[in-house]
């Protein structure tokens, strides 16, 4: 699978309640925002890249990325962001048959994430792939077929589907396993304590 055939969607549409509100992706970590870190790692891995966020897009202007609000209303969770990415790719990146999703609260994601998701899909002839570390699946870091957008929209609108797992359970899912030594690359910052832990990992030289 060629990189030009894969669009990317950065999921930043959540409410960050556990972080105390605002955008947790814009919190500073080691001198730059978490989102800046993720854009730097994600950017080279995909073709066209869109930021999925709700509310005033001006707060993300510095990134110079297109911003797409959730296409289903009511903060329907990360699955709404995946659907938004699929529909954005279909409208704006017609050469992309796949879209890779990145949650924007994991500052240390792997540089070979998309390549390994794509390899897993090809190896297993799957409809989608997601990352796994330490036995735990991370469907917010996934690779999704754009041509399933209408099916996903139907499931969200008509069946009120909200859980990413409910969608992955319906399809042939391939898994890409990632090592957690010295740090789980999908370590995510949900709470202020997680941010403090991430600062500690950087200060200890375990991650950059
Ligand atoms: N597009 C979109 N993305 C979401 C939504 N809810 C969560 N996300 C994203 O999914 C990823 C994981 O989010 P969570 O930590 O589960 O949710 P959150 O709303 O950001 O945080 P909490 O309110 O503390 O649960 C993050 O990148 C969020 O921005 C949503 O309703 N729409």
UniProtKB/TrEMBL annotation:
Its cofactor is Mg(2+). Transfers a GMP moiety from GTP to Mo-molybdopterin (Mo-MPT) cofactor (Moco or molybdenum cofactor) to form Mo-molybdopterin guanine dinucleotide (Mo-MGD) cofactor. It is found in: Cytoplasm. The gene is mobA. PANTHER family: MOLYBDENUM COFACTOR GUANYLYLTRANSFERASE. Residues 8-166 form the MobA-like NTP transferase domain. It catalyses: Mo-molybdopterin + GTP + H(+) = Mo-molybdopterin guanine dinucleotide + diphosphate. Keywords: Cytoplasm, GTP-binding, Magnesium, Metal-binding, Molybdenum cofactor biosynthesis, Nucleotide-binding, Nucleotidyltransferase, Transferase. Its main location: cytoplasm. This is Molybdenum cofactor guanylyltransferase. Its EC number is 2.7.7.77. The N-terminal domain determines nucleotide recognition and specific binding, while the C-terminal domain determines the specific binding to the target protein. SUPFAM superfamilies: Nucleotide-diphospho-sugar transferases (SSF53448). GTP binds at residues 11-13, 24, 52, 70, 105. It comes from the Bacteria. Belongs to the MobA family. CDD domains: MobA (cd02503). It comes from Azospirillum isscasi. Monomer. Mg(2+) binds at residue 105. One of its GO terms (molecular function) is molybdenum cofactor guanylyltransferase activity.
